[in-house]
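Tutorial sheet, problem 5. The two components below are modelled jointly, 986 residues in total.
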Amino acid sequence: MQHSYAQLAQRLKHDLQRQRHQAGDKLPSVRQLATSEGVSTATVVRCYRLLETEGYVEVRAKSGMYVADWKAQQAARRTLQAAADATTPPPVRFEQLASLQHRMSQLHALTAQPLTLALHLADAEPGWYPCEALARAGQRLLRREPQGLGTYLTGTGLPALKKALIGHLARSGMDLGPADLLVTSGATEALQLALRAVTRPGDTIAVESPVYFGILQAGELLGLKMLEIPCVAGQGMSLEALEYALAQHGGVRAVVVMPNFQNPLGTAMPDAAKQRLLGLAERHGATLIEDDAFGDLAPGLDRPRPIKAWDRHGQVIYCGCASKSMAPALRVGWVVGGRHQRTLESLKFSNSLTTPWFEQAVLAEYMVSGAVAADLRRLRERLAATVPPATEAVRAHFPAGTRVAGPAIGWWLWIELPEGLDTMVLLHAAVRHGLAFTPGALFSSAGKFKHHLRLNIARPWTRELALGIKTLGALAQAAASHPAGAIAPAPSP
Amino acid sequence: MQHSYAQLAQRLKHDLQRQRHQAGDKLPSVRQLATSEGVSTATVVRCYRLLETEGYVEVRAKSGMYVADWKAQQAARRTLQAAADATTPPPVRFEQLASLQHRMSQLHALTAQPLTLALHLADAEPGWYPCEALARAGQRLLRREPQGLGTYLTGTGLPALKKALIGHLARSGMDLGPADLLVTSGATEALQLALRAVTRPGDTIAVESPVYFGILQAGELLGLKMLEIPCVAGQGMSLEALEYALAQHGGVRAVVVMPNFQNPLGTAMPDAAKQRLLGLAERHGATLIEDDAFGDLAPGLDRPRPIKAWDRHGQVIYCGCASKSMAPALRVGWVVGGRHQRTLESLKFSNSLTTPWFEQAVLAEYMVSGAVAADLRRLRERLAATVPPATEAVRAHFPAGTRVAGPAIGWWLWIELPEGLDTMVLLHAAVRHGLAFTPGALFSSAGKFKHHLRLNIARPWTRELALGIKTLGALAQAAASHPAGAIAPAPSP
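Model answer (structure tokens):
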């Protein structure tokens, strides 16, 4: 999807590359170009900013826009790249963190930085997963079926995996047959396909607020308008706010929810509220897209029921995956889309053909090995164990007035710092100390949660983690005692 | 993307499910519903057809539309599904083969049928791939890095794989750095991302004709209008026809080509034509999306240059993969998108996060093992060996007047049967004999190539293959001697 400023920039670049202008030539002023192109000055400003970022244009103070010596810059860049070690991380474009289109990629770019404590993504301690069992299952598989890596896989999912999933999901109250399931590349692809199945660009969907930034990026790239519905403590999405929004907007195509451990609040929606939500969606003809990535990690004995389990009219598209509960690196997810299933299948084939054989087969073997229940229990216990010391550390070291939202499973802490403290600015300082977290602003497209942050604590409570939280707290304290948003000099660790 | 007939059908289904009508009630006539809904009668007809297919509506001859007893039907279906063996293949919906949206999924459904000779997809003999080497590399990997399956992968591609790909693509004349490459789930995802990066719904793109049906399905699901540009023997896309179309339409956003062994014609575009094509695209401001899935399989010593190798202005988005030349089940592809690279990365993250670690690591190991050149040579020889006997068999057994297009690598035969012979009808008969091929109609959205078919011959010349071609020829002969399209009684094999 190309905005008009990007199209204009592309055409200008073409001209520059064809030598229509030489390095050092003066370019039209913003007003001149807006008039000659018949676009707004805002569009021209964005266009010139883009060209400046890419090295084609330079701004000379009080003078205007000039053609930069882009050829020399590109040659230099290529030489540098060729010489650089293949593992040199690309720089983080902090300004793109705030952009809806790029926030996820920039967050991942953060990961490539040299960080002591990378707490900005949703990954848990690798050692908490049954890696050895998965690796052994993989080796057995490759010995037994070496031709597996040479055979084109077809269909909507490996039969052995579907069988295992049917058993697994039956425990959640979902009664499925093989034709009801489509295996995807993680819940990410499941959500993407679900959105594409029921919306077109220009449509409106309702999402939780705060909401996982992946949904915001997906919605933006699909050209969707997103209504951010506030959440209430202990429930998740406010059904009153949703009811109001659905009635007022009239024409919301889908409501995207994470009722079992919302990302980032960690709330669990009670059954009664789930049923009300389903009824609301039915009455307004909106598809409920349910992301159940964390559903298996509920504390306690009873696995919470997905909303899909109550769905009699095909109102819900259910998305799940193994990435959080069983095996992060397998990238295996699934979607149960009811009446939309054939459309989802066609979209999947068109999108990425099939999910690879190996991962599906490994997961299937693991799921029927009998180890899942015990591994999940152990994972839940470990997640829960870090919560008290981590929460305590935040209370001890962060500025007065800091609030920590209740995390139900322990995967992360949603921390609200005193108002006026900009956590995006804090991130700059934190990265210099080798620490990363997710700034709250990423969880909204409307500029909310600027003084919030999400901290990943899905790892053992170690001295390193304790020190990281202490340092982060100190940086926040320093920022709090300076004018709003200013970056304080680094305190001694 | 939902068409208006589908939206209307959805609303009617809602009404039916809410018991607004009882089984046996008469529904509005086509004209009545068109008037009351403010849509065309064509839309209502399509709507009613969809509801009929799904069992909600039944047509009573000379009487009209009635509500079917859909609840009983659904209950019966669920019971059947629950009782059925998980491996029962879903029926092939032949009528959906012709639909742009579903043709690929239905083609894959064909594969689930009990077929002796499944020659309708683009898979080659699994034994022709270095399966054992890949399996051994996989086992080594899992022993060395068992935590690999527990660690969330981030970034735009495993560094080791990027390094191997840079070396591999350098031999094609492409000079890349790690930031220029994005690893995708096969060329399928690469093409999908490329289309989404440079088009919006409603835009127009130019494609070859005949063209790989995956492109048609992708374009349809993205809401794109597709201009089908005829190909010429020995070249591929006709540049004169393309020039005319670009000038006449004015505003074509992208041109999708497979210049190295076009699917399904097998043509290889000469270098001079490639450069003309690039110039054409530049002059008209259209992005060239290049699918190079088969490029490594050129006969002879010189690997053909991708058009990307001549690209100085970022006009080309290059898509490649390992699925045809090295390892079909790995689902690893790559995209080199020049100025669109950051957009492609954001789309990828939003689409499926990352391509799994295991497949990337296995491919990287294989690519640096030194075995690639010899394995590719052997694969090319084997592909070429089947061509003469297969072509001979077609000439011997198919109806007089049948023409076989020259296949440059031997992956398939593009067969033109006498006009009037409907290969979609022939497919029905063939499937009953356990044979499948790809009907020509799938390679166009405009109803062309009805008497063509694509036959996959990427397998050893065996008695089984010989018998299959003989049987298919006999079926075609029988159909040719009957009135156009009629299905003849099965001849004795």
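Marking note: Chain A has three domains: 4-68, 76-126+375-481, 131-370. Full credit if you identified this.
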